[in-house]
Design goal:
Keywords: Cytoplasm, Nucleus, RNA-mediated gene silencing, Transcription, Transcription regulation, Translation regulation. It is found in: Cytoplasm; Nucleus. This protein is mostly helical and about 90 residues long. Helices cover about 80% and strands about 0% of the residues. The protein has one domain: Alpha Horseshoe (Serine Threonine Protein Phosphatase 5, Tetratricopeptide repeat), CATH 1.25.40. The chain is flat and about 35 Å long. About 10% of the residues are buried.
């Protein structure tokens, strides 16, 4: 249908014109995730910090940092994680 075509076109246009995610950011995000999976939480946080420098508005980075900190702490700081998630939720609205 015509409206579907228009919508898809808009989506494509947005990803081209908006700052979006650079290859560098994708690599950093991948490195952060790899480090996280390997249990290297400090290394993961370093990558996430760098990502945050590049993209201060990205709430996903903040969320990933909160989760990484949570794992790094031996999963004992649920209140901190909860607080971060509440803050993020408020920022997004």
């Amino acid at each position: 249908s015509q409206s579907d075509k228009h919508y898809a076109g808009d989506m494509k246009h947005d990803s081209v014109s908006s700052p979006g995610i650079s290859d560098q950011e994708k690599e950093m995000a991948a490195s952060a995730f790899e480090a996280f999976k390997a249990g290297s939480y400090d290394e993961s946080l370093k990558h996430l910090d760098s990502l945050q420098e590049l993209n201060k508005e990205d709430y996903k980075v903040t969320m990933n940092k909160a989760i990484t900190e949570f794992y790094k702490s031996g999963q004992t700081t649920t209140s901190t994680l909860k607080q971060t998630l509440i803050t993020l939720k408020n920022q997004m609205h």
